[in-house]
Design goal:
Layout: E1 3-7, H1 11-23, E2 28-32, H2 45-49, H3 65-69, E3 72-74, E4 79-83, E5 88-91, E6 94-97, E7 100-103, E8 107-109, E9 128-130, H4 134-140, E10 148-152, H5 156-167, E11 171-176, H6 188-199, E12 203-207, E13 211-215, E14 219-222, E15 227-228, E16 232-235, E17 239-241, H7 244-248, E18 257-258, E19 270-272, E20 277-278, H8 287-302, E21 316-321, E22 324-330, E23 342-348, E24 353-360, E25 363-370, H9 373-385, H10 393-397, E26 418-420, E27 425-426, H11 427-435, H12 441-448, H13 458-471
Parallel strand pairs: 1-2, 1-7, 2-3, 7-19, 9-16, 10-11, 10-16, 11-12, 18-20
Antiparallel strand pairs: 4-5, 5-6, 8-17, 13-14, 14-15, 21-22, 22-25, 23-24, 24-25, 26-27
Helix pairs in contact: 1-8, 11-12, 11-13
Length: 472
């Protein structure tokens, strides 16, 4: 019996374990997690902060998962090293032998070198919390209405945390060193429109400013000499891959653990997936690449598809904030006068709407859609499937395009169209599961995992269920 050991019980490690069990339940699977919680969906933590979802609803596994499936699951484990010569993982009080080792150690929150955020021993100072784990989330959730809170970081997670806290009645200020929010996914125009929309929800912004000092009871001081009131500071300033085990074991590491298309490290017995892995075409911090990697590696290690390869992920980023619909994909940092691309833009900041479409040879290579969900549904399908865009670009941006295979409603989509990007679930898979007895959204979620990632596909799945109920 082949022994597969997984170090890390986060979203990547848990998903890999599930994929292995689906292919070959006889594999001797050991999963080592450093947290005491069952695996949970980090993508949904902002919903816990906003009180729109309870903490137990974000679990990926229940407490009986391991015993039900014969998995040797060990929680709260400190993995101290890897002995590659003896093929063992060293843990407190013992060792775990492996035939194949999977590193799914994820990433840790990066804490800016701001005076006062950390104690001399490196721990976070009182009143400071990162936004990475479910324990962090529960600490943030202790914030009370009226409490002034500063969020360091105007990226995806920082904005989701800010919205959640504002929904609780906290007085939230986002401090971001760049001139506009979500600069990786949005251009400056889109960033301004998004910040304006969020300001209407009670979030203040200090953009182009960095925090230089935090004084408990006094607040956060910025590099321009101003002060932001803050009884709580939430740090969401990015992550760094957890590579310590790989470095200590002599495995090649750059910004992450370097892997090839087979997800092998420099030691062919050791693999890496998720946020700790560095692969060309991978976007760290997003769930879709991690879960696609988990499926490829499970195919290879169980023998279900020994030739499977990971070729990178076509990522669509969605901001999960109630009342603000944001989707972005591809290369959006292309100027309007770029000779090699066609760029179409539409701005309506008063109504919180912004659209930018980047095309090359009639194919969508990048897009930003804010406050335009119907158009976003069509454009993301075009991007996914690399279909030729309709000639009337303005109609496309307004969600009124015709003559295209990609359409907004799930009913009209071809069976190959991907409905749930996080789990790569197509319309055809959902229809098959429905006819197999999964006739509710919950049952379809259990059967296919659709809606269990970021949750942005739930409306599409609901629409598909309603249509199937009328036609079958």
């Amino acid at each position: 019996m082949r022994r597969v050991v997984v170090v890390g019980y986060g979203m990547a490690g848990a998903r890999f374990a599930d994929e292995v069990l689906r292919r070959d339940p006889s594999v001797a699977l050991t999963v080592l997690g450093d947290e005491w919680h069952p695996a949970y969906n980090r993508v949904l933590l902002s919903s816990v902060v906003a009180r729109s979802m309870k903490a137990d609803r974000v679990r990926l596994h229940d407490h009986d998962w391991a015993s039900t499936h014969g998995v040797d699951l060990r929680l709260g484990v400190d993995v101290t090293g890897i002995d590659r010569a003896r093929r063992t993982v060293l843990v407190d009080g013992g060792e775990v032998p492996y035939d194949a080792l999977v590193l799914a150690t994820g990433a840790r929150a990066w804490i800016p070198p701001t005076e006062g955020l950390q104690e001399p021993d490196g721990s976070l100072a009182p009143g400071v919390v990162s936004f990475r784990t479910i324990d962090d989330c529960l600490r943030i959730s202790a914030a009370v209405p009226g409490m002034p809170v500063a969020v360091l970081g105007g990226g995806l997670l920082g904005l989701e945390a800010a919205r959640g806290l504002a929904a609780r009645g906290c007085l939230v200020t986002v401090v971001h060193p760049v001139g506009h929010v979500m600069e990786r996914q949005l251009d400056a125009g889109a960033g301004r429109v998004l910040a304006r929309a969020l300001a209407k929800l009670g979030i203040e912004f200090r953009l182009g400013s960095s925090a230089v000092k935090y004084l408990p009871g006094d607040g956060l001081w910025l590099d321009d000499g101003s002060r932001v009131p803050a009884e709580l500071v939430v740090v969401s300033a990015g992550v760094r891959a957890n590579t310590r085990l790989a470095v200590d074991a002599g495995i090649v590491v750059d910004r992450g653990v370097v892997v090839d298309d087979a997800l092998r490290t420099s030691d062919p017995r050791v693999h890496a997936i998720g946020d700790c892995a560095q692969h060309v075409g991978t976007v760290p911090g997003l769930v879709q690449p991690a879960w696609e990697q988990a499926a490829v590696l499970a195919d290879r290690l169980t023998g279900a598809a020994p030739a499977a390869r990971y070729r990178g992920t076509s990522v669509v980023t969605r901001l999960k904030i109630r009342d603000v619909d944001v989707a972005a994909c591809g290369d959006v940092h292309v100027d309007l006068d770029c000779p090699d691309h066609e760029v179409v833009s539409l701005q309506d900041p008063t109504r919180g709407r912004y659209a930018k479409l980047v095309l090359r040879d009639d194919v969508v290579t990048g897009a930003i859609m804010i406050g335009m969900p119907d158009a976003a549904a069509v454009i993301m399908q075009l991007y996914d499937r690399r279909l030729a865009a309709p000639s009337d670009r303005l109609a496309l941006l307004l969600g009124r395009a015709s003559g295209s295979e990609a359409v907004a409603g799930p009913v009209d989509l071809p069976t190959s169209a991907v409905i749930c990007r996080c789990n790569t679930v197509s319309k055809g898979q959902l229809v098959t599961a429905y006819h197999g007895g999964a006739t509710t959204v919950t049952a379809l979620s259990d059967a296919t995992r659709a809606t269990t990632g970021c949750g942005s596909c739930k409306d599409a799945v609901c629409g598909l269920v309603d249509w199937l109920a009328l036609t079958t």
